């Protein structure tokens, strides 16, 4: 599945217990609490390892998530908008991560900028329902995808680095 460093990192992300999706209001609140706790723990781990690479926030009911993710390649930061919705069949079905600005630039992406996680990540998610959550999706789904696809897109000239735009500006 993954290298030893990834296994160690993922083993420190809390596993979730509540088997509930957004349709079950009472249990969804508990599941969402567990999701936030796992995400906070994962972000803390990343920061401690000097590997901060994403920001996420959700709408009030936790069904729509947006944010940014980034990768450092050749000492340059490439930043992308990230979004996803929680499927009604969650956690049995993993969310589909979208990076709209990369749509059409790689074969490992579907319509609307949905990244392809079917071969490697989806079977892993299915074996770990309901223990895996959004932190696991980021660590085992998005992180490896970015690490493989973005450098390839850069080398093909499909993604280029732009200078920061103003104070605190992002590049992409």
TrEMBL record:
InterPro entries: UBQ-conjugating_enzyme/RWD, Ufc1
Recorded superkingdom: Eukaryota
Gene Ontology cellular-component annotations: cytoplasm
Residues at the active site: 116 (glycyl thioester intermediate)
Gene Ontology process terms (BP): protein K69-linked ufmylation
Primary role: E2-like enzyme which specifically catalyzes the second step in ufmylation. Accepts the ubiquitin-like modifier UFM1 from the E1 enzyme UBA5 and forms an intermediate with UFM1 via a thioester linkage. Ufmylation is involved in various processes, such as ribosome recycling, response to DNA damage, interferon response or reticulophagy (also called ER-phagy).
Subunit structure: Interacts with UBA5 (via C-terminus). Interacts with UFL1. Interacts with UFM1.
Name of protein: Ubiquitin-fold modifier-conjugating enzyme 1
Protein species of origin: Myripristis murdjan (pinecone soldierfish)
């Amino acid at each position: 599945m993954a290298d030893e460093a990834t296994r160690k990192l993922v083993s420190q992300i809390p596993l979730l217990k509540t088997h509930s999706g957004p349709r079950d209001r009472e249990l969804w609140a508990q599941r969402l609490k567990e999701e936030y706790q796992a995400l906070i723990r994962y972000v803390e781990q990343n920061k401690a390892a000097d590997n901060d690479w994403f920001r996420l926030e959700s709408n009030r009911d936790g069904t729509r998530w947006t944010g940014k993710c980034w990768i450092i390649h050749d000492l340059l930061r490439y930043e992308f908008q990230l979004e996803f919705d929680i499927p009604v069949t969650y956690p049995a079905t993993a969310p589909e991560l979208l990076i709209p600005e990369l749509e059409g630039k790689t074969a490992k992406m579907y319509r609307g900028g949905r990244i392809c996680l079917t071969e490697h990540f989806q079977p892993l998610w299915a074996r770990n329902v309901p223990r895996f959550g959004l932190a696991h999706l980021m660590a085992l789904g998005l992180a490896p995808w970015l690490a493989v696809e973005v450098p390839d897109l850069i080398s093909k000239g499909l993604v280029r680095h732009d200078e920061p735009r103003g104070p605190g500006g992002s590049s992409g």
